[in-house]
Specification:
The protein is of the alpha+beta class. The protein has four helices and eleven strands, in the order E-E-H-E-E-E-H-E-E-E-H-E-E-E-H. The chain has two domains: 98 residues, 2-Layer Sandwich (Phosphorylase Kinase, domain 1), CATH 3.30.200.20; 88 residues, 2-Layer Sandwich (D-amino Acid Aminotransferase, Chain A, domain 1), CATH 3.30.470.
């Protein structure tokens, strides 16, 4: 069995600031000199003074804001990091090729490594729902018939296919200054012009994924 990469924040990489150690990824922000050298040598399509980082993923398992540990001292799943990186890089690349959005990824020199640029995230996520399941079903089973501003019909059963695709946005982080939206993480919000760009991106992902469903079917709840 392959070894588990548990620790990923102790690599001998020259940095300009302390290594950021996340739940599964570590980020090494390169020095100004090394960033400029990489941009020139690799021909990255970014400004010459862009800040670059080396992002290294581990095999750790993170869920519900916790790092999970298994029996017998198992602190991850072999090759989990490489698999997650490959899936993520595939969709980021497909977004770029379809003209939907660019990303922070500039290069994938190793299955566990990304070369990235500094980017500002969109603090909204939009879930494309074709079935009533997960958090939507939990709300529905409690009697709620409105979800993210959408009216949900009576008589539905758990995991039932919906008549039409629903786009249900929520905050990803804390957003401030938006009337009617609590300043808290993971808050369901109604569709509006404010989220229009995010909504269209989520719908585009659904259309792309349905076109490729013969080779991959992914249900997210």
């Amino acid at each position: 069995m392959s070894k588990v990469l548990e620790v990923n924040d102790d690599l001998p990489i020259r940095t300009s600031q302390p290594v950021h150690s996340g739940k599964v990824r570590a980020v090494y922000w390169l020095t100004k000199e090394d960033s400029q050298r990489l941009i020139k040598e690799k021909g990255y399509d970014v400004s010459s003074d862009a800040e670059l980082a080396v992002m290294v993923i581990s095999d750790r398992i993170s869920a519900f804001d916790c790092i999970w540990h298994g029996e017998g001292g198992m602190n991850g799943v072999p090759c989990k990091g490489a698999a997650l990186n490959a899936i993520s890089a595939h969709w980021f690349d497909l977004f770029r090729k379809k003209g939907l959005a660019d990303s922070h990824i500039l290069d994938v020199p190793h299955p566990l490594v990304w070369i990235v640029q500094k980017a500002r995230p969109v603090m909204i996520e939009a879930i494309s729902r074709q079935y009533i399941t997960g958090s939507m079903w939990r709300s529905y089973s409690k009697g709620e018939r409105e979800f993210c501003g959408l009216k949900i019909p009576e008589g539905l059963k758990n995991n039932q296919k919906l008549d039409k695709l629903l786009i249900t946005p929520s905050t990803k982080g804390i957003l401030k200054g938006i009337p009617g939206v609590p300043e808290a993480d993971d808050v369901n919000i109604a569709r509006s012009d404010l989220e229009r760009t995010t909504r269209l991106s989520a719908l585009a992902v659904w259309r792309i994924s349905t076109c490729t469903k013969s080779s991959l079917l992914m249900v997210l709840v």
